[in-house]
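Our platform keeps sequence and structure together, in a single record for each protein. Because each token names a local backbone shape, the row as a whole describes the fold. One such record is reproduced below, unchanged from the form in which we store it:
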Amino acid sequence: MHILSDSTRPKQGQLQRLASRLLLHVVVLVLSIIFILPFVWEISTSLKSEPQVFAMPPVWIPNPIVWRNYPDALAYVPFHKYVLNTLTIAVPGLVGILVSCTLAAYGFSRVRWKHRDFFFVVCLATMMIPFQVTMIPLFITYKTLGWTGTYLPLIVPTFFGNAYYIFLLRQFFLTIPADLSDAARVDGCSELGILAQVVLPLSRPVLAVIALFHFMWAWNDYIGPLIYIRNESQYTLALGLTKYQTWQATRSTWAWLMVASTVATVPIVILFFFTQRTFIEGITLTGIKG
């Protein structure tokens, strides 16, 4: 009887591990369905006729499928122009963020200088200042410079760093062995040379994370363009979507709004799927050393 109970213990342990893994997969599956439902509803609504959009109970599978909504919705506003305007802001801003944050993070992590940690804490403290506090002073500053009505207030600040991205990069740089930098210094390499030839090649995962984060933020930014852009020809995607909800819009444009939202979301989804391995690796490795 004693031998029988000992032999059943490994099987019980395996069953418990199997049950816990099964429970974990069920929880993940349920959460995934909850998160994906809004996107499914968005796509479904984009293919509905007007009566189906407001039907009760809700119609999940359009019948008939109105494919015409897509060309009609994208022709309702200069959608391609909004995409180009958004890229005009996002791409230079992405370059600015990567350059400025990389230099600042390298200075905070790999270069020894007086009061370095104090200024790093000050940099992090700026994250606690809400945008609503600085919004009016920034607007007055940019208006005085004559930048309102242009993209400059949305691009130029990216070349002066971002505290959150600086933090992520610094934490990752700290995980790179200092011996590599010391060996490069012995060979006569400057600090910028060490950054370019040693640190950056090893930092591709975290750079990809920051690039994806900033591109997503610039692609979806609404409040910034709303404050500084005046001419409708300069509208970004986030502002262009509001054209489907103006007082001139009819009930049928709700399906068109879902069309435009779907088309605006798809590039981000595709970008994430192509970069998800690097993105997850960067998230995993960032912040494991203080």
About this structure: The chain has a mean pLDDT of 84. Residues 2-46 form one domain. Residues 105 and 138 are 25 Å apart (CA to CA). The radius of gyration is 25 Å.
